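Convert to structure. Protein one:
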Amino acid sequence: MNRLTTSGAGYELARFPENPRDPFRAWDAADEYLLRRLEGEDGAEPVDLSGTVVVVGDRWGALSTVLAGHRPVQITDSYLVRRATLANLARNGADTDAVRLLSARDAPPDRVDVLLVRVPKSLALLEDQLHRLAPAVHAGTVVIGTGMVREIHTSTLELFERIIGPTRTSLAVRKARLILCTPDPGLARTPSPWPRHYELPGDVGPVSGRTVVNHAGIFCADRLDIGTRFFLGHLPARSGPDRVVDLGCGNGVVGLAAALANPEASVTFIDESYQAVASAEETFRANAGPDAEAEFRVGDGLADVPPASVDLVLNNPPFHSHQATTDATARTMFHGARAALRSGGELWVVGNRHLGYHTQLRRIFGNCATVAGNPKFVVLRAVKR
């Protein structure tokens, strides 16, 4: 946990789940730059926050917690950010209902007077969010984006310009920059181009030729990524009433393959991204038939799955948290899988070879076998003894 100090107060903030060994803070220089701008530092006029304040893409709830006195609306695609926000509000003595929490799938407010955008890693997610918010923006809306210099590109500014109105950037301070946008009510309003659909190749097993639905922000929006493609070629051949979990499901292609290969299986799709779970459900419904059953959960990995209740976990873990490279998410997923699996249950993982997941799996499960490998990827299997 670390302390963020503003001109008015200090705030104890942490990521979620909180880990004392985590070297990363719950905010960065971009958040601090935005908060200083709102307060009117550096000669700018303080921003009137008496109207409807919307915070998009908050990282771990830092901005929402500092602004809690203005009862902002937070829009996030991350379940973990939502949990972090609630925890940070509580640890700083604010009511947990001081911030209205919306997901990226929820309808935004009808009117927005101050729009604060923490630029996401995904340009597609930013595009979708701006399209969804544009009808609520009016000529007097204050629109400020923020991000580290490496996160703000010409394409980022072009999206603000095309969807909201004339856009410029601030000077860089501590490698952070602000995006200052003036709404243009005369701009033609167009719907978001998301979700998008693509057809899978014909050599990927049970899902060959199937149509995938991708909402904005999902990895590899217009094609099958090479890691998943490799995984699809080496999934376990199973039959019977298995309980299967597609952990970190993304658009749900892996879980769909398991369901099509074994119609008796019960498949649960889990991701911390609301957009991902929506994509997985739409992909499944489009391909598995009207009578097929599956469960779709937005959550913190397997934390809410009963212990010793699962036969098979399929996992392609992420190794980035925003811009940071970390194996913390993979470790959490592996520990969660061991707890959720029945005795004899199996965790199958695909990952970049250089990440060395076999070492972690041996430490957690006491065993790990390499199922398949190529110069870039490996498929690993660990069994709960």
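Protein two, convert as well:
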Amino acid sequence: MPKIFVPTIMRKHTENKATVEVPGTTVSEVFDNLLDSYPLVRDLLRRKEGGLLPHINVFVNGDDIRALDGEKTGLTDRDEVHVVPAMAGG
């Protein structure tokens, strides 16, 4: 199963797990399955109408999904998905 690396801010909603393995063949499917298991992550990851929040960056094996197929990016069992919230401030 693909492994999701959970950012610190979301870990309180994933039983303090830094990584979780979730079934799925696309980024979208993996996130849907993540939210089935950990529904409180939804508000930190997705818009109410669907899609990722604009300040959430997602990388598959180090590649930004925006340069790939977005949430339709295909995944295999050995892929690593990193969720990285953008930082604000100056």
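The mean pLDDT is 94. The first strand starts at residue 3 and ends at 5.
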